[in-house]
Design goal:
five-stranded antiparallel β-sheet; mainly beta; 0% helix; single chain; 590 residues
Length: 590
């Protein structure tokens, strides 16, 4: 589910590092030609129906989000890679800047005691050095020949490792040179002056979370991937470590699905990788899991691009800049909106009688199967596919169809700016930032303070306590039976099932008793505020019943995660790792 990204709330320039290719030189270089800086331092559900669940989320910056689709138009002018020069009289290369990926971590910040968010720079040297550093040591971090002040955090080990911290904020997409002089090996032998050069990365402006797949989009159009890594897409082969998706072009929007991903480029092409067992990669074939990165068979008219993507469990949607929506993948519940049920449709096909669409969303629901929604440029909502749990906000019962074969307008809401679809519920942002929910209220998924008769099916209503609904929302996401929003003040609020810790409020919910005497464990009936997040701009969530996780994008471009994490698919540091992450933690490398 998704909404277009529109930047908000003064996103500041901070420091993140990518890779510069370095050449080997004297100094007994032990490193390869590709180096980088490591920046550290910082059960079964029952109630409204049964069936299979799966969904995927994505979200861009403020202005909206979703779970199950993908968003993000980067906004602003793309920044050219490389940045400004930093060398001043080149010296031999010093040693390795560990790894083949970007690793960035920052100190946590709260409103009471702000911490300067600058990275540590960790350099593994080619030679053993004396620690502590001698008085003759001279360490210089240069930008355009101008020195950036540094502190030495630590020195030691074998091979010798220097950890340094800039005392001012670094710039994005800028070339820096670290010069190291005046060192010795502790036995009276001087070590030749040397240097390491790196380029800071562009700011992250969009996020998308899916079951086993997580994506982050930089302002310059670079796309990063981490998660269960079903394709070994990451060069390291290590799950949870953010890696560049090898695309030749600027990505403008993306969607993380259930073990697959989609990305739309500025040139109008769409690319996908991962699971294709239902044709959800749009290649004209149905050929199983772990498919390599390749082009979706989507041909657009001249001048037309993709502005919104949705990657549901087994089907996908693309909204074009001309308002037309393309659909492909599983069609067992008419989730493609083509007017009929069928075997998978592996080639993107235009949905008839649906125009002027700005945002698309989709999910694998419970009961009869998948479903889809679209928001038009005027804020109207249309739904199609399975509606047995009321996730389309259309009537449910013997007199109404279980599935809608074609787009049907939802009459209960208007003026919608963002939408997110989960397995059991749908959430939308309307006028004034009010948040609406509809669908099945199992585990308090609708956020209205009650779980009714063990999961009533309800039409659209405001989220929050009676007389005190949520307002001023700018981004929304949906998990299986949970919802999350970002408010204009930068806080994150969530409700519904909290078994995984997805709400980030430091708990896993509590046991609640419904009006019919039945109850649910690990539930939050009313929106609760996530801890330690005061500057969020977007939220995204993935869906897999009982194993949900969520991503938050903060105003400084860092990405934080909470929820189910048994294999560290969230990509957290060793210090932050837990199976159930109940407070949002930063994803190193972003």
């Amino acid at each position: 589910m998704t909404t277009p990204f529109s930047p908000t709330r003064g996103l500041t320039r901070k420091a993140f590092v990518t890779i510069d290719t370095l050449t080997t030189a004297s100094c007994e270089i032990l490193c390869a030609t590709r180096m980088i800086v490591v920046l550290a331092g910082l059960g079964a559900l029952a109630g409204c129906g049964s069936g299979t669940a799966a969904n995927t989320g994505t979200t861009p910056g403020a202005g909206g989000s979703s779970a199950g689709g993908a968003p993000v138009a980067t906004g602003g002018v793309p920044v050219a890679a490389g940045g400004t020069g930093g060398d001043a009289g080149a010296l031999p290369v010093c040693g390795t800047l560990a790894g083949d990926h970007v690793v960035v971590a920052v100190s946590p910040v709260d409103q009471e005691s702000p911490v300067l968010r600058v990275p540590n720079i960790t350099v593994t040297l080619s030679e053993e050095i004396a620690c502590p550093l001698p008085a003759s040591a001279k360490l210089s971090l240069l930008k355009d020949g101008q020195a950036v002040p540094l502190d030495v955090v630590s020195c030691g080990g074998f091979p010798s490792i220097l950890v340094l911290r800039p005392t001012v904020q670094l710039d994005y997409v800028t070339r820096y040179t670290l010069r190291i002089e005046g060192l010795d090996n502790g036995m009276g032998n001087a070590i030749a002056p040397c240097q390491v050069t790196f380029t800071t990365k562009s700011k992250t402006v969009g996020i998308s979370g899916g079951s086993g797949t997580h994506l982050a989009l930089d302002q310059d159009g670079t796309l990063w991937y981490w998660g269960s890594n079903p394709l070994n897409l990451a060069s390291t082969g290590v799950r949870g470590i953010p890696e560049k998706v090898p695309l030749s072009g600027r990505v403008v929007t993306m969607a993380a699905g259930s073990d697959y991903g989609l990305a739309a480029l500025a040139d109008g092409t769409v690319w996908g990788w991962g699971d294709n067992e239902s044709g959800q990669l749009g290649r004209g074939t149905v050929d199983g899991p772990e498919r390599p990165l390749d082009k979706v068979q989507l041909t657009l008219p001249a001048g037309v691009t993709v502005v919104s993507l949705a990657a549901a469990g087994h089907h996908a949607l693309a909204a074009r800049s001309d308002g037309i929506v393309m659909a492909w993948g599983l069609n067992a519940a008419s989730e493609l909106g083509l007017g009929y049920k069928s075997d998978p449709v592996p080639t993107p096909t235009a949905i008839p009688n649906l125009t002027n669409v700005a945002v698309v969303a989709g999910a694998d629901g419970m009961g009869c199967g998948g479903f889809s929604l679209a928001v038009t440029k005027s804020g109207a909502v249309y739904g199609w596919g399975c509606n047995s749990e009321g996730t389309l906000d259309l009537p449910v019962g013997p007199a109404f169809p279980a599935s809608y074969a074609s787009p049907t307008q939802v009459n209960g809401v208007s003026g919608i700016t963002a939408i997110a679809t989960g397995t059991w519920g749908t959430y939308a942002i309307g006028p004034g930032g009010n948040v609406y929910s509809w669908g099945c209220n199992i585990n308090g998924a609708l956020g209205n303070g009650d779980c009714g008769l063990s999961g009533d099916i309800l039409l659209a209503a405001l989220v929050g306590a009676a007389g005190n609904p949520l307002a001023q929302a700018v981004s929304v996401a949906a998990a299986a039976t949970s919802g999350l929003v970002v408010l204009s003040d930068g806080t994150v609020w969530g409700w519904g099932s909290n078994y995984s810790g997805i709400l980030g409020d430091g708990t896993q919910g509590s046991t609640v008793i419904c009006s019919d005497g039945n109850g649910f464990d690990n539930t939050q009936l009313l929106p609760a505020e996530a801890l330690n997040i005061h500057d969020a701009v977007a939220v995204s969530a993935s869906t897999a019943a009982g194993t949900d996780d969520a991503l938050v994008l903060r105003s400084d471009g860092t990405v934080w995660a909470a929820g189910y994490n048994p294999n560290n698919d969230l990509g957290l540091s060793a210090a932050d790792f837990a199976v159930y992450v109940t407070v949002f933690k930063q994803v190193p490398g972003l």
